[in-house]
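> forwarded from #structure-qc
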């Protein structure tokens, strides 16, 4: 791993560029969520996996998107 390249990217990119990178990585990201029957691994939404929410990155799961669209 080349930390200097990672730090250079982090320090020299805009939040929008970082968001685009997260979108490109979305199919490799899962989010563990604790439920009554155990821990579930949530995948990110295929249409809008990551977006900016103010100055933060919002990760949207498939379950969250279904909830928002119902």
């Amino acid at each position: 791993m080349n930390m200097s390249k990672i730090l250079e990217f982090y320090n020299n990119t805009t939040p929008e560029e970082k968001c685009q990178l997260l979108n490109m990585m979305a199919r490799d990201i899962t989010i563990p969520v604790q439920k009554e029957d155990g821990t579930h691994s949530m995948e990110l939404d295929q249409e809008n996996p990551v977006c900016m929410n103010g100055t933060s990155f919002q990760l949207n799961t498939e379950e969250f998107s279904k909830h928002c669209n119902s």
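QC bot note: The chain is about 40% helix and 30% strand. Residues 15-25 form the longest helix (11 residues).
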